[in-house]
Write a structure and sequence with these properties.
This protein has 364 residues and is of the alpha+beta class. The chain is built from 11 helices and 8 strands. It comes from Roseateles agri.
Length: 364
């Protein structure tokens, strides 16, 4: 590599690293407890589970489940209904003042078999919520997400430029060598390079998936404006279907499940909400395999007539988003994968911290 090219890559690595390091440290620190959010919620007694009822498999109509949830907040509407991947006997009903996107929502846990309210999920409070908001949007919504996405892009630049610089730097050293007989800064430089190249693939995957996740809102809006608008052209200009004019929700659910046999509900978006149209109950159905459980199939059913309208295949960018979300937090391989993710997260914190130390030490 020529001296000029080496200087260019060195400049890229230095400034991309410096600009994003503080924010990457924040994301690594907040991401560490989020890897174990299920386990932490369970240990703190904040996780709500459907009670064991041996032999009971019949589920109550979804309309009764929603009615039970709304009884707690009669002045609100049901915006979403979802079921955990590992507990089909539990419904989470999201209640908001209006159909529009908002942070003012209540989440009620209802037993799918008895339609009895089991409790209310804590929303907007507690340590885990603080970690999540800092990790996702820095408490400033979409601008915060896009800013963190930019920091993720700079991290990828820093990783690529670091790899380019690593080969000529290590030409006179054995791979992974740490010169313990040299100055403290030299030892930290060698350790920084060793840990950086060791966590290279993981850091790139987590950085790339995190960056993709920051674009989620924009991706969904684009999908609605481009694909759904074309599919639902016959509804153009029709007003939002009021609740009084909607048919039984259970009927529309049965239509959706019959259309996609072998799948079950991940979540339902009701008319006028951010994941649906003004006229449809939109069912997002998951498969029964580890991968297909993450790739959702939307099914739109007319909320007033209960008739099937469309089941569009998700575009590639939304499929990439759905795959990247659990991969970002290591949610594919159970506890062993989460522990591996946590260890790599800790090593990355050392890489980021040592890089900052090396820059400060050099300029002193």
């Amino acid at each position: 590599m020529s001296q000029g090219a080496l200087k260019t890559w060195s400049w890229l690595h230095k400034w991309s690293s410096l600009v994003c390091t503080v924010f990457m440290l924040l994301l690594c620190l907040t991401g560490l407890p989020l890897i174990f959010h299920h386990e932490i919620d369970h240990a703190l007694g904040e996780e709500i589970e459907a009670p064991a009822m041996p032999g009971v498999t019949q589920h109550a109509p979804l309309d009764e489940v929603m009615k039970a949830a709304r009884a707690r907040y009669p002045d609100r509407i049901v915006q979403f209904a979802s079921q955990p991947e590992d507990d089909p006997n539990l419904w989470s009903i999201t209640l908001t003042p209006t159909p529009e996107p908002t942070n003012d929502f209540k989440s009620i846990a209802v037993d799918a078999r008895t339609a009895q309210v089991l409790g209310e999920f804590r929303v907007g409070e507690g340590f885990m919520d603080l970690m999540l908001r800092l990790h996702v949007d820095l408490f400033v919504g979409l601008p915060g997400k896009l800013f963190l996405g930019l920091m993720g892009l700079l991290l990828l630049v820093a990783i690529v430029s670091g790899v380019v610089l690593y080969a000529p730097f290590m030409r006179k050293l054995d791979f992974g060598a740490v010169r313990r007989d040299r100055s403290t800064r030299t030892k930290w430089l060698d350790l920084h390079n060793l840990l950086g190249i060791t966590t290279l693939v993981w850091a790139f995957v987590v950085g790339a998936t995190g960056m993709i996740n920051t674009w989620a809102e924009l991706m969904v809006q684009y999908w609605q404006n481009e694909q759904l608008t074309t599919l639902l052209s016959q509804y153009k200009g029709a007003p939002l279907v009021p609740e009084s004019a909607r048919g039984p929700v259970q009927k529309t659910l049965d239509v959706a499940l019959a259309r996609e046999p072998g799948r079950r509900v991940a979540f339902i978006a009701f008319p006028g909400t951010s994941f649906s149209s003004p006229h449809h109950n939109t069912f997002f159905l998951r498969g029964d395999q580890p991968l297909t459980a993450k790739l959702l199939q939307p099914v739109l059913v007319d909320a007033a007539t209960g008739e099937f309208t469309a089941a569009p295949a998700l575009p590639w960018y939304l499929s990439a988003l759905l795959v990247s979300q659990p991969l970002h937090f290591g949610d594919y391989g159970g506890l062993p994968m989460k522990v591996t993710w946590a260890l790599l997260d800790l090593i990355t914190i050392i890489v980021l911290g040592s890089g900052l130390y090396l820059w400060l030490k050099k300029h002193r």
